[in-house]
Each structure stands twice: as C-alpha cells, then as structure tokens.
Fold:
Amino acid sequence: MSRKALIAANWKMYKTPAEAKAFVEAFLPLVAGHTRDEIALFPSVTSLATVVELAAGSNVSVGLQNMHFAEEGAYTGETSAAMLKAVGATHTLIGHSERRQYFNETDEVVNKKLHTALKHGIVPVVCIGEVLAEREAGKTADVLKTQITGALVGITAEAAAPIVIAYEPVWAIGTGKTATPEMAVEAHKIVRAEVAKILGADVAAAIRILYGGSVKPDNATALLGEEEIDGALVGGASLKADSFAAIAKY
Ligand code: 13P
Structure:
C-alpha cells in the first residue's frame, strides 16, 4: 500500500509571529505545486493564527505542538482542541519527547490527548522514541511497544485512520546524530507490527510512521527513500525556509 508522506516542521519554542510570517512568505513559493507529499507546520501558540491565515488555500497544513485533553477548564497555560480548531489549525503533535521529559507527559496523558484529538477531527501526530540508555540496554523494542500500547488504549480500528506516528529516537533529537535508515526502518517495523496487533493489519498497513531526529537536507533522501519511512518530523532544519523546502522536496 502506498502511503502519502507527511513532512512536518516542529518549530518548538522558536519564532515570533513576525518571524513566522517571514518564514511562510518565503516558504510557500518554494513548495508551490508540491503535491507528492503533505506538508505541515507546527508553530508556537502565539504564531498559530498568523501561520494559518498566511497558509490558507495553500498545500501547507498547520497544527499545534501540544493540546490539552480536556474540553475546557481551569488549566492555566493550556490550549484546547476547540481553540485549535477555531483558529483554523488541523493537526496537533502529541507526546513529543520534550513534553514527556520536561512536562511529565506520560503514556496515559498521551492516550487522553489522542482520544480528544480524534473526537474533534484533529490529525494527531503521536511521538514516541527511546532514550540513549534504553537503546544501549537493548530495550528499544520494549520501549516502543509500551509507548504505542499506552497511546492506543481504547482506540478502535474505525477511529484510527487519521493517526500519524512519529518515531523520534531521543538521542537523535537536536544532537546532529541521525538514526541510520536501517535503524529507523527496524524501529518502524516494530511499531507497525505493534499497531497491527492492537488495531489490525489494515490499520497498520495504512498508518503513517514518520522519522524525526536531526533530519537535514543532506540525509532526507536516504531516510525518506525507505518504503517504511512515511515522512519526517523536523526540528532545527525546519526553521529556515530553504532548508525545510529542500527536505520537503527530497
Ligand atoms: P531536530 O530535527 O532538531 O533533531 O528535532 C527533531 C524533533 O524533535 C522534531 O519534533
């Protein structure tokens, strides 16, 4: 089955609205007419509306980097699914390793957020990945299986179609150390097999699994050329329009 790749920019805590505007104005012409893959930008909350407005009618989707699971309530500093949608965004990242590491996001929280995103018709990009010590201890497969199983509790095969998974080995994020295509493929196969166990073979064959972790223009082709790798979630190299466009057009 052929899966349409998703090339996504996670800007993390970078870019003011003016900087985001400058990026989008430079970026859209570079990827105009590029329909082979889906392209998505994940700006910070304060730039979300600006980026949505500028990208309207283009081939570029926009999402948040994090979303709360509750409909609304006394959750200072958080953003709800309804808020995300009201601005015109369509995607959200869930469970990025930095959320897990610095903001105590557990598999249980990830699961709640996934339910909320699907309920609201938001495309969820669920991030998973092992830390270096886990890889060195030979625990990568176990960690990935636990994270996937935890994320998918209570999710049915019927509801699962929009889900995207991003495999981001934590030791490769922001370090310049990329997983080799072979390492990424091996991990993706583990994840896809686990999805098959939980949601069935059809969902597993259709679900997109992105790779993230030091993706750059010069390694994108090798990674994205792999059948098992259905796109990229890009941090540092997504901050410049020309470099992210080069990755999108690998
Ligand atoms: P880098 O591309 O900077 O390694 O970041 C990857 C990432 O965390 C994307 O979500």
